[in-house]
Amino acid sequence: MDVLNPATEEVLGQLPTATDADLDAAVEASQRGFNEWSAMTALARQKIMEKAARYIEDNLDQIARDCTLEQGKPFIESKLELGFVIDAIRWYSEEGKRAYGRLIPSRFPGTRLIATKEPVGPTCAFVAWNFPGVNVIRKIAGALGAGCSIVIKPSEETPSTAIAIARAFQEAGVPDGTVNVVFGDPAAVSSRILSSDIPRKMSFTGSTAVGKLLARQAADTLKRCTMELGGHAPVLVFDDADVGAVAKAAAATKYRNAGQVCISPTRFYVQEKVYGDFVDAFEEATKAVKVGNGLDEGTQMGPLIADRRLPVMQGLVDDAVSRGATLVTGGKRIGNQGYFYEPTLLKDVPEDATIMNDEPFGPVAPVASFKTEDEIIERANKVKVGLASYAFTKDGDRATRLSKQLNTGMVGINSMNVSTPESPFGGVDESGYGSEGGIEGLDAYLRTKLVSETNM
């Protein structure tokens, strides 16, 4: 299938797709790879993973350039993403040496009770296109750090970054079959792999609808699952916050990767007293965003991933305006080549507008006002997805209340940064379950075994 540059619409190359025989071979290879990789010491695995991290460091600019070509994000964002990839490899490689068990005091004389951690087995993963490096490495590094092998299907729209990551591990010396990368029709690939008894765990990053389907398929063979699904992050701005600074940070985070981020701030609620000041500052920041080809110097926002996303953005804007919202700036496609959409700001957006209830996954920011803390907590928690949320206030007691009351897996208080290799990343409710990153992300690839040993 063709791989397109979303900024120019030109074909970058053709991507080979897997047959059923290819998929079966990859799954079977993952069993052989697991047998060899899991038998190695954690220290030996760490040394190989460190070599992979160094390979990516040595080839950083080329991999980042290819990432920008196929995904569209600015070159500097691609480099930052690969920095996360490198850090995640190193973090998981080191943490794999600390997969501790424990000795349990026994009630029986002459008996030892030992709880040990061991790799769950061969694994499989399916990931979305918006972060070709981060989405992939969270699966691969977590699996390898725990001693598991993996078969991963990255997005066919952004394949080169995943291929480069796999090549890094190959060059570093992972045993054959430890890391397997396949491409093809998503539904056909996932159903074939999930029907096999070999993978014992599945990890998925993508939409809630697809996640539910994969979870049902994984249930047939009782695979354990980690599901990182959709979000619709509210941002609560209280009247004691530094409105100008918050608006600037909010705009930078909102338009990062053209808004195609699962933890992107997507619903802005501002207390009445500072509402007008916030909208004015946000408008200024929005108009200052430089849109263009990600390889051009100074570009701050690239295109959407594909032409299918353009009418979705326009539909969200038109729906909001038809329900009483005001279009402050933006609101239309840019040019007729490449999938560019203007950074867009809407104000006075009513709660029944589609964009306040469905994740936009694009560069459209809706803003609405609120009066009281109790009122806005209810509005913030109204959606079924609960991945990330953000709140800005100088009141410490309020910050503590908000951190408890916001129904999301991650809460940023006076910060938009909720994603690091060493911290758990995951949501609640229809944003999925399980975590990637942190010790929780490693534990997802481990299982517990009890050994009861009695002296004879």
Can you characterise this structure?
The protein is an alpha/beta fold and 456 residues long. The chain has 2 domains: 2-229 and 431-454, Aldehyde Dehydrogenase, Chain A, domain 1, CATH 3.40.605; 233-420, Aldehyde Dehydrogenase, Chain A, domain 2, CATH 3.40.309. It has 14 helices and 20 strands. Strands 12-13-14-11-10-16-17 form a 7-stranded mixed sheet, sandwiched between helices. Strand 1 (2-4) and strand 2 form a beta hairpin. It is globular and about 80 Å long. The model has no long low-confidence stretch (mean pLDDT 97).
Topology of helices and strands:
Elements: E1 2-4, E2 11-14, H1 20-39, H2 42-58, H3 60-71, H4 75-95, E3 102-104, E4 111-119, E5 123-126, H5 134-146, E6 150-153, H6 160-172, E7 179-181, H7 186-194, E8 201-205, H8 208-219, E9 224-228, E10 233-237, H9 243-254, E11 265-271, H10 272-287, H11 309-322, E12 326-329, E13 344-347, E14 364-370, H12 373-380, E15 385-386, E16 388-392, H13 396-405, E17 410-413, E18 428-429, E19 432-433, H14 438-443, E20 446-454
Parallel strand pairs: 5-6, 5-8, 6-7, 8-9, 10-11, 10-16, 11-14, 13-14, 16-17
Antiparallel strand pairs: 1-2, 3-4, 4-20, 9-19, 12-13, 15-18
Helix pairs in contact: 2-4, 2-5, 2-6, 3-4, 4-5, 9-10
Q: What are its keywords?
A:
456 residues; alpha/beta; Aldehyde Dehydrogenase, Chain A, domain 1; Aldehyde Dehydrogenase, Chain A, domain 2; 2 domains; 7-stranded mixed β-sheet; 6-stranded mixed β-sheet; 14 helices; 40% helix; 20% strand
